[in-house]
Amino acid sequence: MSFVRTAVAAAAIIVAGCNSSQTNTAMNAADNQTEASIAPVLETPDAKDAASYARPLEARVHHVALDLNVDFETKRLGGTATLDIDRKPDAKEIVLDDKGLEIASITDGSNQPLDYKVGPSDPKLGSPLAISLRPDTNRLIIKYKSAPDAGALQWLTPEQTAGKKKPYLFSQGQAIENRSWIPTQDSPGIRQTWEATIHVPAGLTAVMSAPKAAEPMTQGGESVFTYKMDHSVAPYMIAIAVGDLAFKPLGKRTGVWTEPAMLDRAAAELADTEKMVEAAETLYGPYRWGRYDVLVLPPAFPYGGMENPTLTFLTPTFIAGDKSLVGLVAHELAHSWSGNLVTNANWSDSWLNEGVTSYFENRIMEALYGPKRAAQEAALSFDEMEKAFAEEGINGSNTQLHLGPKEGVPDGGAGGIIYDKGAVFLRTMEKIVGREKWDAYLRSYFDRHAFQPMTSALFLADLRENLVKGDKALEQKLQLDNWLYKPGLPSNVARPDPAAFADVDKAVSAFTAGGPVPAGFSSWTTAEKLRFLNKLPRKLPTARLDQLNKTLKLNDAGNQEVLFAWLDLAIRNRYDPAVPALEHFLTSQGRRKFVRPLIQTLAADNAWGRPIAARVYKVARSSYHPITQRDLDKLKLGS
Ligand code: BES
Ligand code: ZN
């Protein structure tokens, strides 16, 4: 692709934001071409990514080829990255993102050295890596190593794995961590195809977020794995895991990777995965990535899930034995459309990834498990949104879907807004225009923008062009600008059905008024249990907590979401009998959504909680992900 060809496509797509149906046809016809031609979106005013040093309109990476050795001794990935670039003919340099990389040399495609300069390092963003270009330079060969403390990489000792015999490595790129192991332009709008050759000690398996390129080879104590992604993806979607891994098929294009000791349990929990892919396709169009496999990681994995293309990464804490937490799988699968196919151009528009996905997740859950479960999960999500409004203030600038430059930083934004208000927005649109019309629109949106970056402004332009179509009454009813650009909640909001939790809410009122622990609790759905625990007053007398704990066996809850909800309530009441369960929970898994709020709540309670937090963190810190450590170190629990 040349900048000249891109410019032609640019003109076409920029008009698409306005009102031309002719442009649409052009875009659909040019499916393959648009995948490579991202410049048009990057040229729009809202697409600029303040979290990257790259200047993609001058020169940008379009293909990355990695050849890396995995060294567990030194905790480094090292080798070469060969980058193919597109550039303006007069571009003098290309700027990459670099966080702590040790660079040995940079040459061009003919092995001629290129001048380069690593700029000052910002603690969050890392450094700009500016490489001088000669007029004919279109390939860069970078020899380098990642640093032992690379933010994207977690190195586990054998003891930290289920099998206890072999070490383990995994990466987590989102949002801006991949620059700590891949020297490229680490911005979600700069889509790149990629391939990798990975050398690991024999006996270990390397999996990545791309189709396998060839059969693995083992020779001289080393195994070599190759992967190749022919679709252009955001660089945060490049992911790797290395360990003692086994595979079990789940369906014709689905399967699970995990440590052998976990394989059967994981496969049982994931039995519905193939059906989920089918349901998702029925809703919003073809699954475009080939296989959909999942990797169930060791408990140190810092997230619930991560939507790495072709290979979703999952925490093992979703395994409850009864599929009650597989909403997580539906969520990561849905990202194969919202996020991986159509991707937020920068972190001010995270709702385009997470909010659209949360809505889509719920639709998959409805298709598989019926409207009752979906309505309950949607109502819980609505509660999360209301909690965010309570925390941020209804007029807080953090409560807009499109975040301003201050809020829209990579780790910024409140989950209750980006995920839950985002989902409520789409649910409101669905209610106003009707499901059939809404679904047809959303499906066409994914088709029109497949393999492209997206911004709130372009989303609204697309919606107006293809759904509102000049209908003034409808435009007024939807309140689109309020939803995206104003804090709080527009008046047309679709509220959850109060019937979803009618019985549970009665049980909450009864218990709060001094009545009994609900008798049916053990046969309730997980959503019902969570609603109950989350709606109880945050302050309860010890005797009442005792009743809950003894009758409902909450300290022993096997469902990690239920256990988390209980422990939150318990520590707010300095409930000593929950401390052993709390300590076990905080030292046996590292999911950030669980460990961060619990440790933060403990740390804020100087007399009772802080010593517990300090004791636990001393033991647990080394098993937490570098990103989680970075957050929790701020609490200064050691001092
Ligand atoms: N893409 C996110 C994880 C993420 C977001 C990582 C932002 C880094 C920065 C993933 O899809 C996700 O949303 N995971 C959730 C689970 C989901 C069911 C809400 C999680 O990890 O809890
Ligand atoms: Zn997500």
How would you concisely characterize the structure shown here?
The protein is an alpha+beta fold and 639 residues long. Among the domains are: 58-155 and 176-235, tricorn interacting facor f3 domain (Immunoglobulin-like); 339-485, Neutral Protease Domain 2 (Neutral Protease, domain 2), CATH 1.10.390.10; 513-633, Alpha Horseshoe (Serine Threonine Protein Phosphatase 5, Tetratricopeptide repeat), CATH 1.25.40.320. The protein has 22 helices and 21 strands.
Write structural notes for this entry:
Helices cover 39% and strands 20% of the residues. It has 639 residues and is α+β, with helices and mostly antiparallel strands. A seven-stranded mixed β-sheet has the order 4-7-2-1-10-13-12, with no helix packed on it. A five-stranded mixed β-sheet has the order 15-16-17-19-18. The model is unreliable at 1-34 (pLDDT under 50). The chain binds ligand BES and zinc ion (ZN). Zinc ion is lined by residues 331, 335, 354, 357.
Features:
39% helix, disordered N terminus, five-stranded mixed beta sheet, 21 strands, globular, Serine Threonine Protein Phosphatase 5, Tetratricopeptide repeat, binds zinc ion, 22 helices, Immunoglobulin-like
Indicate the topology.
Elements: H1 3-16, H2 21-29, H3 31-36, H4 39-42, E1 59-71, E2 76-87, E3 93-98, E4 102-108, E5 116-118, E6 127-132, E7 139-145, E8 153-156, E9 168-171, E10 192-201, E11 205-208, E12 212-219, E13 222-233, E14 240-243, E15 246-249, E16 254-258, H5 263-269, H6 273-284, E17 292-296, E18 305-306, E19 311-314, H7 327-334, E20 342-344, H8 350-369, H9 371-392, H10 415-433, H11 435-448, E21 452-454, H12 456-468, H13 472-478, H14 480-485, H15 502-512, H16 526-535, H17 542-552, H18 560-572, H19 579-588, H20 592-604, H21 609-620, H22 626-633
Parallel strand pairs: 1-10, 16-17, 17-19, 20-21
Antiparallel strand pairs: 1-2, 2-7, 3-6, 4-7, 5-6, 8-9, 9-14, 10-13, 11-14, 12-13, 15-16, 18-19
Helix pairs in contact: 1-2, 6-7, 6-8, 7-8, 8-9, 8-10, 9-10, 9-16, 10-11, 11-12, 15-16, 16-18, 18-19, 18-20, 19-21, 20-21
The chain binds ligand BES and zinc ion (ZN).
